[in-house]
């Protein structure tokens, strides 16, 4: 289920993010996160003590140490003690947890943040540790190789070809030219093959970054934001882990989540898709029935900046910000997790009629 | 708006042991989930969503293992959330699942927490590397020992209190078929004669490293009406967090723990926890944390917690039984330990706790904490549904 049950409506009322960068050696996670937290609070004029619930998303494996999120909490300023939770997932799922908390009526406002530093390690190697630990992970198939399998399946099915993939990359990075936070923008060479059929241009930049949003319910949202981005529906679904039992040219879980979120009830004007690899954007456009009338990834998407664990929350934040600015009336935001789009979240955001 | 009441209608756990070499991680979690479904007499298809928790991924060496576990937990095609709030995660996971029901987003949710600690060495997994922490902490015991010393100094508790707790919990564990440690020859003297590990914490006053999983089925009012066995009703639930290290932090009785308990009591309409609560499953990984948390949770005044322990109040047949199941001291699959506390509280009010059942338990507290005593999650469950 999906659309807000009962009589409560929840909106994204503020969004902030870092300038995403290839490395941030001189900063701890907390130091990277702090300015974003301050900025998102400043947008609403609230202080930490005004927030009813806080939820974050991150992964220990990127930092290379257990409990990395515990110190990030210090950046929030959790004193006096706060009502707080954490998902070891992309921040989009932290937002989902916060959304349910607001629906119960136990909280009227929520701070959601996510961050990831990919620079300390080899993210291609690190992500292999997500795979079935007995049968697959010991083979160390990396994230690019798995995305290449998906790309080849699409090409074999006649759904795309290499020039079409290059066009996806070019369009996203052209759009990113207008995004001051993006890491990779403007014309980017497609480059050499990394893993056939994917070239470097088909792959996301590796980078560090953080994002934060504030959610608020009902009148509180109207108080805090001139044009709240109301969450009309949000849902997420997971698929089988094994690549051999999935149709890699399709995303059944995205389609189901979109249905449950009400995405197909009326057309959207904007879609922010979490597709770190060009073939994934092809798959998602089909699953979400996005035609050329929809502005896809005006921020540049994950091909322009892909701070792992924050990239999904960034999509929701970017979609909401367009509603805040009056550039969109009904936007779709998507987040993904796991190899080859295993798990997908879809949110539908709307601004009030102008 | 009113929240949907949340009921526990199914509980399952594995027999906790040092190493389950006969099952994979997937096999371990499925065993607990299967038992919870059987208890609720439900099928996989009856589950709308799965909420899973465990402590750091480094304990098994699998990054975000919920991805790999989706198939084993029947989650394919469903929503699946993964919670991680350090040692409190088992409790937090149950509360996140409960919120899905309370918000009427889903009707019936499977929630599960696990740890397969034999896949690694938890002590070193818990020893944060420099520059994040001072070196030579040597696991959780090294972190908590100074705070226990602080408690002893502040409260004037005699040095034997820790041993009394360990002796009680290990005897309680003998009545719990799922408990890890079954020390049939346990005596108070043996506890006190065990080697000193982190002064004042002795070997027998510490928790074991366990492999295990715990699962619960949470459902709404109509789901509870169909349940084959008495449900446990959630009367209150809360989480609180505070920073790891700062000058004003009281490690002996953290403010976050006090606030969390107060929120749960407020929701449940409890004004005198000592009289109105019939038992408590409290996260006690080192024996001295029983008297410390008795004070933090409002069961005893400041400096008075050890007196309840010494007087036998917390014994299984005492006035306020604590850790009837044997507690974390007898069973510690870290990520699951909090959920086991929550589940054991629910078993008690359902009257399903077997040999360690407290007669007439109507309201029981489940408690978990984690990090450097900075994350707290608790719920109070009852045999009767909430009033509203």
Automatic annotation (TrEMBL), chain A:
One of its GO terms (molecular function) is acyltransferase activity, transferring groups other than amino-acyl groups. Gene3D superfamilies: 3.40.47.10. Keywords: Transferase. It comes from Streptomyces caelestis. PANTHER family: ACETYL-COA C-ACETYLTRANSFERASE, NON-SPECIFIC LIPID-TRANSFER PROTEIN-LIKE 2. This is Acetyl-CoA acetyltransferase. It comes from the Bacteria. The lineage of its organism: Bacteria, Bacillati, Actinomycetota, Actinomycetes, Kitasatosporales. The keyword Electron transport does not apply. InterPro entries: Thiolase-like (IPR016039).
Automatic annotation (TrEMBL), chain B:
InterPro entries: Thiolase (IPR002155), Thiolase-like (IPR016039), Thiolase_C_2 (IPR055140). One of its GO terms (molecular function) is acetyl-CoA C-acetyltransferase activity. Its EC number is 2.3.1.9. Residues 243-372 form the Thiolase C-terminal domain. It is an enzyme of class 2 (transferase). Signal peptide: none annotated. Keywords: Acyltransferase, Transferase. Coiled coil: none annotated. PANTHER family: ACETYL-COA C-ACETYLTRANSFERASE (PTHR42870), NON-SPECIFIC LIPID-TRANSFER PROTEIN-LIKE 2 (PTHR42870:SF1). This is Acetyl-CoA C-acetyltransferase.
